[in-house]
Amino acid sequence: MLAGTNSQGGVIDGDRLSSLVDSERGTIDRRIYSDPDIYELELERIFARAWNFMCHESQIPNTGDYFINFIGEDQVIVVRDNDGAVQVLLNTCRHRGNALCRAEQGNTKSFVCSYHGWNYGLDGRLLGIPGQKNFYRDQIDPAEWGLVKAAKVDDYKGFYFATLDPGAPDLHDFLGDVGRTGMEVLLAQGEVVAVDGVQKNIIDCNWKIAVDNLFDWYHVKISHRSAAKAGFLNPRMMMPMDQMVMLGEYGHAIGGPMISEAQQAEIDQLSDEERADIDLLSDAERAKLAPRINERRPVRKKATAEAMGPVGVRASGHPNIFPNLWISTRGMQVSLRLPRGPFETEVWWFTFMPKKFTPDQRRGAMKFISHSFGPAGLLEQDDGENWSQSTQSSRGVVSGRIPHNMQMGLGQDEVLEHPLGQKRIETRVNEHAQRWTYKCWAEWLRADDWDDLMAMRSPSPTGRI
Amino acid sequence: MDAGERLALQFDVEQFFYHEAALLDDREFRAWLDLVADDMHYWMPIRRTVTRDNLDQEFTKIGGMSYFDDDKDDLVMRVEKLEAGSAWSENPASRTRHFVSNVRILETYRDEIAVEAAFHLYRSRLNGKIDHWIGKRRDRLRRMEQGSQQEIQPGFQIFQRHIFLDQTIIRSTNLSNLF
What is the DSSP pairing of strand B36-45 with strand B156-165? Predict the structure, then answer.
């Protein structure tokens, strides 16, 4: 049960896996960022098992529209079939394994292999094999040789996910309360449509370094000092003291600034129209009109408030859908951190705009977004540098033996439970969400399959934390 | 425009590009900003690998997502950031070399000139990181009043720089330099 077997047939001792993350002491074994066996195990036991984000429905609106994505290092075609359903197909011909799609996106009637011409329908069925009669002498059954489909495909209100593991729970249960609350951030301004273009770049860091940074409100003031100095970041945004953390099963988490109960109570009094008006005000106007509603926090509509729950609605930090989907605070972007070996990560940014945004609102939002993240983003430029150097400088023989420190706030806080069930930690800048992410990460690696993971996973914590 | 005028214009535009490249490579970013017009649009769309029948999807359009979509104020902000000691992606400072070639003047109208050029931006970063960005630029230049006759540098300002990379996924840790 505790021994993990990687694809090379090597065995990683279960005790060793358990010792990589010491959540009691708040330390992390640096080898999780460099060990090739651990990396292989991640691909098998996390990525090939979890629900992975594919794309938004508006990216592939028409029959034959496709978008290439990855589940770990497995390439998949996400395509709208003739019935209007979204299919997720492994992008590998059943004959010699050639890639069917070599473009990143497009529109097609079918997928014809460029090697020998095997032809697959939009639903993955094998439609034709050249020489079926003359060369195969009709001794091949095309029904057996269709493209391999994801075990399950589902969407959360238009955001498509897929899992390659038939043992996975439904998307709804996989996300759980915290994951669903996180997804609702994307819909806080109503229905959205994808903006054309996914930013992609390769950072020479381990994917987990990029993931644990998204909960990190400790780095902002230092990492992004130059962006503040240049006037891009409001200095008050740099290190908000009031923080809320929500920890969900399977490793989902939300961490960052919060809307206080008093502020939310004030928002609760407002109509949706008033909420929308306040959300559009400048900082100064907002401070005058609604002094208790912190000017930088989202003022969420009633429907969103209901969907996010009484606690979730007050979270204005960053959700991560385990393992690698970051949802940005205002819910207009998500970032995938795709593993490319222990030392490389492909960072993808998808952008969405609320359908009802006016051109002015859209322009304003796009301006902030396009200057924040992505390789030229005033924030991510410097993040990339730090993640790269954190990865590279942790891998020396002796440097690799000493643990990373993840102790901030350890044992200092209490999990509070709302009468309706949602749990949260209200505190200052902390590393609770990072510790939780790694604790769950270790459980995913130790579990032999979904049944095992469901049996051994830690419940969302209660009490002292 | 007769052959002599065309030659002179070609010479002036090329000399201007070399001067501009030298300012960027010598980290004279403030002086470079003087060459940027107030109505600048500095833009780098996302390029994608597409099949020949989907070539209309190769580049994102204006209003879609991009890597750069800057006006002059944004470029001033980038320069202020570059100059801050805490711009970790550029401190220690990168070493860059901007090459410009295949300069073709596409159109002139009054004091405005549309130019297409190929570029190669080389970056050496820290001790071991090498990046190359190659592509084409569509620039629009505006001829400025000549200050004094002694000025050797031809007087232009750039009011459009559209940058089309010859790579799709950006294979560098960041795009922290100016193109």
Answer: parallel
Judged by phi (left if over 0) then psi (alpha if -120 to 50, else beta), residue A419 lies in alpha
Yes or no, beta carbons of A381 and B89 under 8 Å apart: yes
Mean pLDDT of A338-351: 98
**Quick one: pLDDT at residue A3?**
46
For B43, name the nearest residue in chain A, comparing CA atoms only: A370
Chain A partners of B49 at a C-beta cutoff of 8 Å?
102-104
Neighbours of B124 (CB within 10 A): 13
Who among B64, B171, B174 is closest to A381 (CB)? Answer: B174
Place of tokens 């959205």: A192
- The boundaries of the domain holding residue B41 are 3-165
Give the whole-angstrom CA distance, residue A245 versus residue B152: 61
CB contact under 8 A, B173 and A385: yes
Could you tell me if residue A317 is left (phi over 0), alpha (psi between -120 and 50 degrees) or otherwise beta?
beta
User: Does any domain span residue B155?
Assistant: yes
B157 lies in some domain = yes
Amino acid at A26: G
**Least confident interval from A368-372, B132-136, B151-155:** B151-155
Q: Which of residues 292-311 of A touch B (CB under 8 A)?
A: none
Residue B177 lies in a domain: no
A297 within 8 A of A316, measured Cβ to Cβ: yes
> For chain A, which residues make up each domain, given as ranges?
52-156, 170-259+297-464
Asked if A225's CB is within 8 angstroms of B84's CB, the reply is yes
**What residues of B are in contact with residue A391 (Cβ under 8 Å)?**
none
Interface mutation vs chain A, best among B169, B177, B178, most A CBs within 10 Å: B169
Amino acid at A280: L
Chain centre distance of CA A436: 15
Residue A8 has a pLDDT of: 46
pTM of the model: 0.95
Q: CATH assignment of A52-156?
A: 2.102.10.10
CATH number of the domain that residue B42 is part of:
3.10.450.50
Virtual torsion, Cα A252, A257, A260, A265, nearest 10 deg: -70
Give the closest of B54, B66, B77 to A370, CB-based. B66
* CATH of A170-259+297-464 among 3.30.70.2740, 3.40.50.150, 3.40.190.170, 3.90.380.10: 3.90.380.10
Q: Give strand ranges (E) for A84-205.
A: 86-90, 105-107, 111-112, 119-120, 126-128, 152-156, 159-163, 192-194, 199-203
Q: Look at residue A181 and give its three-state secondary structure.
A: helix
Q: Confirm whether B77 is domain-assigned.
A: yes
Residues 218 through 277 of chain A touching chain B, CB cutoff 8 Å: 222-223, 225-227, 229-232
Point out the least confidently predicted range of A156-165, A287-296, B114-123: A287-296
How many independent structural domains does chain B possess? 1
